[in-house]
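A quick word before the example. In earlier lectures we treated sequence and structure as two separate objects. From today on, think of them as two lines of the same record. Here is TetR family transcriptional regulator written that way.
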Amino acid sequence: MTLTPDLSAVSDAPRKSRKNNPEKTRENILQEAIVEFVQQGLSGARVDAIAERIHTSKRMIYYYFGSKEQLYVEVLEKLYGDIRNTESRMNLTALEPREAISRLVEFTFDHHDRNVDFVRIVCIENIHNAEYVKRSDSIKAMNSNILDALGTTLRRGAEMGLFREGLEPLDVHLLINSFCFYRVSNRHTFSEIFQIELSDEAVKQRHRQMICESVLRYLQT
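And the structure line, produced from the sequence above:
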């Protein structure tokens, strides 16, 4: 007598399948690409190395991004997008003008201090004369949003008699970022030449307060 196996239990059992998640895959590639570009620069970065980190193939990376250069452009877009999205959630135009400026300065200081990769990538892009920023319409658009919010805040402050008239949002943006960016981008040479530890918490808090007060004093009538 031949026994026929009962397959009902097999057919009823839940089937495990690998679900493809394109967004998750793209995000994983971007995260590892940031590491590679920060460590090796654009010219020295290897798609092979990125693929090895996430246990995938070069073909998969090219499927999602097309080329190493386009992957680099999207890394730039992600890093600029992260800071601009956080700024937009601060809702600066709803705050009292002086508080809005203080929060923006403090956020910029903290962001650059905690996100060295962003600073490194921007330095790398400057070596390439912003060639890849020029290829991205979204970077220009997202950066215009913070200037709009800053401009509204400066006008409100002037109307309330808190800030002087005629302030240019781009000038104020440059003032804030120049200090916050420089102390991270040049931290090694600056620390060695002047024998100061910029990562010391007391030093950081002193500098944070200093740039905040400096910007507010510049804006005052």
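Notice the following. Confidence is low (pLDDT under 50) at residues 1-18. We will return to this example when we discuss secondary structure assignment.
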